Amino acid sequence: MQDTKIAILGLGLIGAAWAALFVHHGAQVAAWDPEAAAREGLADRMATPLRQLEQITGQPARGRLTVTGDLAAALDGAALIQENAPESIPLKQALYAQIEALTEATTIASSASALCWTDLAPSLRDPAQLITAHPFNPPHLVPLVESYGTDPARLNGAEAIYRAAGRVPVRLTKPATGHIANRLASALWREAVHLVAEGIADVPAVDAALVHGPGLRWSVMGAHMAYHLGGGPGGMAAYLDHLGPSQERRWADLGTPSLTPGVRAALTAGIAAEADGRDIPTLEHTRDAALIAVLRARTSSGHL
Amino acid sequence: MQDTKIAILGLGLIGAAWAALFVHHGAQVAAWDPEAAAREGLADRMATPLRQLEQITGQPARGRLTVTGDLAAALDGAALIQENAPESIPLKQALYAQIEALTEATTIASSASALCWTDLAPSLRDPAQLITAHPFNPPHLVPLVESYGTDPARLNGAEAIYRAAGRVPVRLTKPATGHIANRLASALWREAVHLVAEGIADVPAVDAALVHGPGLRWSVMGAHMAYHLGGGPGGMAAYLDHLGPSQERRWADLGTPSLTPGVRAALTAGIAAEADGRDIPTLEHTRDAALIAVLRARTSSGHL
């Protein structure tokens, strides 16, 4: 992606991770934020991602970064606008109005997490100018980018840029709150909270069961594929025939917990036991080192 | 675990994986099945697990295997009885009656998956003789063993044996159908099916989003820990304060699909597209190679 210009709008943690990712892979990144403090803190927030990307690829950053408070300068000549404004509909839509006054040609890709395309696009003169392209935290390490839009050519263009930056774009066919990944994560966590709330297992036990069981497996194959292989020689069709009814009974038995004060206390105490004195930066450091090792292993071994 | 004798009862795929695992790690394994055909097929079913365990550890198998149709001979002197009979309450309980006539001292660890301790233990003269110890497929590669029982000494003894065989035992504090891991997997798959049923994403997209997003992350840290790190410097408590209500709204928005003929057809067609002509053995081979690579990476990097 050498010589491709990418505009990054909004320079918090997500914007900084995108900036590091694109600079690492050789792009000309124009980073814009209306707040001087956000612009000034960008280099700090990019330092760890840039170092980790060097570690993963064994290559130094090949691109270039300019930081600006001038939106027109940031957008001029950009192949893609990656928008990382706060998760507020009026705030994002006000920014889109500024952008479309400057360009209606360049695709705006929103990193929106809690909001989806339907919440954001209607205010644009040409709603097709907007796509959602949601990265998964930490965005420079986890390859997933979930995309949705109404113009296949714009989606193809943006996804080609993400692929050039080592990402794996996955396209939704219909917009949904939480896209795919956060809906799956939310569904799993609901049951994880239920197990704690019901006293079936404590927080460290639930987390250990996930990491050493299905989580490990889902790092190399998806949930549908797991049931395909669980069906024996007949695959998914056999699984659904033989175990579909018992799966539906299990679904009916899953929990619907509430985050009552008692449940919150159990979760907070449980995570303190699991963290065992390690502060957040220490935990993030361990997570990132492990993610980098697993990413490297998958690259050399392949996966489903 | 050199010189420890383990009795493996029931020699299907799960029994064969246990046998391979214990033989690899140096145990004296006595493998019993009432069916001659099951005994004769055991060596075949153990071949791939044994080869993969050599590949993981770089060590040849150090234990010894004897195969017998004589239950008393299999149990004589065993430190642990790993029971892998079919998932049928009367069938398992009939076997327990045979066992307790021979020994009430040795712990019976049931690999029961769909059944839980409460379904099985009441028929024993001493229900505490039974624990459940559920491995996660494929059992010789995925380290998780979910344990439950009422006698801490028996649990400690069995878990020490699992640890010596490179497993990670996780203890439940209360029995539950599906234990921990299959409940989490079931909760996630329900939403994965919902996404397909609602036309939000197709089967390959859902699987790719999981493998390149939360699945990757759950291979190095649990779901509770992910929300702890998602809360910023305030951790889980801050997450619950700021995002608890939006998480509860997301839970309310999750799907409750039914496996109707239309949904089954979408799942079956979708998995065929994802498999892309690869048959089950080919897919299993890819899965296993990737699991081995990720396990090695985690061993060298650590994880949360």
From TrEMBL, chains A, B:
Sequence ranges assigned to domain 3-hydroxyacyl-CoA dehydrogenase NAD binding in this UniProt record? 5-172
One Gene Ontology term of the molecular function aspect: oxidoreductase activity, acting on the CH-OH group of donors, NAD or NADP as acceptor
Keyword annotations: Oxidoreductase
| InterPro entries for this protein | 3-OHacyl-CoA_DH (IPR022694), 3-OHacyl-CoA_DH_NAD-bd (IPR006176), 3HC_DH_C (IPR006108), 6-PGluconate_DH-like_C_sf (IPR008927), 6PGD_dom2 (IPR013328), NAD(P)-bd_dom_sf (IPR036291)
Enumerate the residues marked as the site Important for catalytic activity.
134
Is the Oxidoreductase keyword given for this protein?
A: yes
One matching Pfam family, short form?
A: 3HCDH
Q: Has the keyword Oxidoreductase been applied to this entry?
A: yes
List residues of the 3-hydroxyacyl-CoA dehydrogenase C-terminal domain: 178-246
State any GO BP term from the record. fatty acid metabolic process
| Membrane spanning stretches | none
Q: What is this protein called?
A: 3-hydroxyacyl-CoA dehydrogenase
Q: Which organism is it from?
A: Paracoccus gahaiensis
